[in-house]
Specification:
This protein is of the alpha+beta class. The chain folds into two domains: 145 residues, Fructose-1,6-Bisphosphatase, subunit A, domain 1 (Fructose-1,6-Bisphosphatase, Chain A, domain 1, 2-Layer Sandwich), CATH 3.30.540; 111 residues, 3-Layer(aba) Sandwich (D-Maltodextrin-Binding Protein, domain 2), CATH 3.40.190. It is built from nine helices and 15 strands. Strands 4-3-5-6-7-8-9-10 form an eight-stranded mixed sheet, sandwiched between helices. Strand 3 and strand 4 form a beta hairpin. Helix 1 packs antiparallel against helix 3 and helix 7 packs parallel to helix 8. It starts with a helix and ends with a helix. It binds D-MYO-inositol-1-phosphate. D-MYO-inositol-1-phosphate binds next to strand 5 and strand 13.
Length: 269
């Protein structure tokens, strides 16, 4: 598979970041330096170290590009370079990571003039690299095996759909939580795995049929949105509008389920 320079770069940096965070995962909470950014928003030294590593690599390779990263790195970039920007979550699913639960992701997205071009979501404990490139498709890479092309599922009935959501911070959380039980009743099952980036990668891979969550940040979803779209799925806000810039209320589906789920989430938006 011949990836564009930005995609190949994102993949190689994601590999380095995945190795870094996996070395820290077995440590206890004190050694991980678990801190509160907000009442239920954690950060660890692994988030900071991985962000430093990823953003240093970007600055060396693409010194004119902008960067937006969860733990504070914000570089505006060079407007003459057509607003090329990297959107980075060094650990998506920090709460799982802090507790030693091996389900979290590193997410690296790249956009030009507001269009997502490259995206990589890696789930380090599983060694799975989900890679998307605008116009080329979405792929799963495991070890040294050839990239495997991804496609969203074909499920059409909510009762047969395995769907996922997340728990955003307050004040959005309380409103959102009250809407989840009806999906638990009507869908096949509902998952909350604790990482929006992995949820989106799993929709792209056809493992989940849909994912929805309000109030997301750009770094949670930039790479994942491209993955779902390139795998043939649909992504919109809760009113059916395209997501631009990445973030906010996100409904990502396999495609066939989009209207059914949109009708339900728009009543609650
Ligand atoms: C969080 C995760 C979680 C989602 C939250 C996000 P973080 O990201 O994606 O699944 O429900 O809304 O903030 O803080 O672990 O990078």
């Amino acid at each position: 598979m011949e990836f564009a320079e930005t995609t190949a770069f994102a993949l190689s940096v994601a590999r380095e970041a995945a190795d870094l965070v996996m070395r820290i995962l077995p440590e206890g909470m004190t050694s991980k330096n678990v801190r509160h950014k907000g009442p239920r928003d954690l950060v660890t030294r692994a988030d900071h170290e991985a962000e430093r590593l990823i953003t240093a690599r970007i600055r060396t390779r693409f010194p004119n590009h902008g960067i937006l990263a969860e733990e504070g790195t914000a570089v505006s970039g060079d407007a003459a370079r057509d607003s090329a920007r990297w959107i980075v979550d060094p650990i998506d699913g920090t709460t799982n990571f802090a507790h030693g639960v091996p389900m979290f992701a590193v997410s690296i997205g790249y956009e030009e003039r507001g269009t997502l071009r490259s995206g990589v979501v890696v789930v380090p404990p599983l060694g799975e690299f989900f890679v998307a490139e605008h116009g080329l498709g979405a792929f799963l890479i495991v070890g040294s095996a050839e990239p495997q092309r991804l496609a969203t599922s074909r499920v059409t009935e909510l009762s047969e759909a395995l769907i996922a959501t997340g728990l955003p911070g307050e004040p959005v959380r309380s409103v959102h939580v009250a809407t989840i039980p009806s999906f638990m009743r009507d869908a096949q099952e509902v998952r909350i795995m604790g990482t929006a980036a992995a949820h989106l990668a799993y929709v792209a891979a056809g493992r989940l049929d849909a994912f929805w969550e309000p109030g997301l940040n750009p770094w949670d979803v930039a790479a994942g949105i491209l993955l779902v779209e390139e795998a043939g799925g649909r992504v919109s806000d809760f009113n059916g509008r395209p997501i631009s810039p990445p973030g906010g209320d996100i409904l990502a589906t396999n495609g066939p389920l989009h209207i059914t789920l949109l009708e339900r989430v728009s009543r609650r938006a």
